[in-house]
Write a structure and sequence with these properties.
With 206 residues, the chain is an alpha/beta fold. The protein is built from eight helices and five strands, in the order βαβααβααβααβα. The structure holds adenosine-5'-diphosphate and magnesium ion.
Length: 206
Amino acid sequence: MSGLFITMEGTDGAGKSTQLNLLNDYLKNKGFNVVFVREPGGTKISEKIRDIILDIDNQEMHYMTETLLYASSRAQLVNQVILPELKKGSVILCDRFVDSSIVYQGIARNIGIDIVKKINNIATGGLIPDITFFLDLSPEKAIERKKEQKELDRLESEKMYFYKSVYNGYQKLIEQDSERIKVIDATQSIQKIHQNIIDNLEKMFF
Ligand SMILES: Nc1ncnc2c1ncn2[C@@H]1O[C@H](COP(=O)(O)OP(=O)(O)O)[C@@H](O)[C@H]1O
Ligand SMILES: [Mg+2]
């Protein structure tokens, strides 16, 4: 076996971390060697880059800088963790990946889809997830959920229109890659969503 690369996508507050934690436990109980990483981050160097990206003081950060920092963090994660672990047969759970950059930097920040794809292609060596779950939650509901949590970081404190363009960006990606990206109704209960995700995985891989 050559491992399995699973990514979770969706707007902030959609439930990605919640579902990845459940999936991590589920797969470990099944006996898989699971490696759970988040983006940006997942390695010592990538976590340092994450701090720069999310620092609320870095308001003057240019969108191209942001795009390249995400790609740098990802290059380190792919080469230091994801590729070696896939080779060993591990299941990789990744909280956000290239799709997030295409949507956030490419579409919402207007850097351009093709440029962001090119940059990330170089950063990842063209690595594509085996399956991606998109947790589908309207921007309105996502913000409501986020408000219940205390502190917002630099990206989360952006305006509503940004959330909307992110959401529309994801819809575009899904249209183009409906085979890889599975859309999950994120307004369901946490357990129901978890079951949907497992059903998809069992149908396709186990
Ligand atoms: N299916 C759900 N229904 C209601 N609330 C949820 C659901 N999934 C997650 N939440 C809550 O919404 C908030 C955001 O969830 P989180 O997993 O942190 O989202 P993300 O990682 O996508 O930003 C948390 O307070 C979490 O407990
Ligand atoms: Mg999260």
